[in-house]
């Protein structure tokens, strides 16, 4: 399987919608917002199999100290093949000189991120205010 990694922030709404819904993330219901979110990210690294978007990671950053990795997702057909690990590695390399690289992991993914060098923040609790669909 030949996967190409690209640094781009330009995606068609349908590409984002298909990828996000493939992993059952509700944000896939808002492809217009996802498209703007990618354009407004500091960096987006995407994985492509031919013309098909199969994964991506995006980062929000203050430009010098902290990079926050908001999304890391890989289409289920491409999971467990090194795509997510490569996306994360490329992002970590880009922000190598930053003091802090941050993300919020789903419990079932903690081991994956620990394998990349992330640690569980003791005494810290992620907190959210999220809009809900009706």
UniProtKB/TrEMBL annotation:
What Gene3D superfamilies does this protein's entry cite?
Answer: 3.40.630.30
Question: Which keywords label this protein?
Answer: Acyltransferase, Transferase
Task: Give the Pfam families listed for this entry.
Answer: Acetyltransf_1
Domain spans labelled N-acetyltransferase? 3-134
Any one GO CC term of this protein is:
cytoplasm
Q: Which molecular function GO terms apply here?
A: N-acetyltransferase activity
What is the name attached to this protein's record?
Acetyltransferase, GNAT family
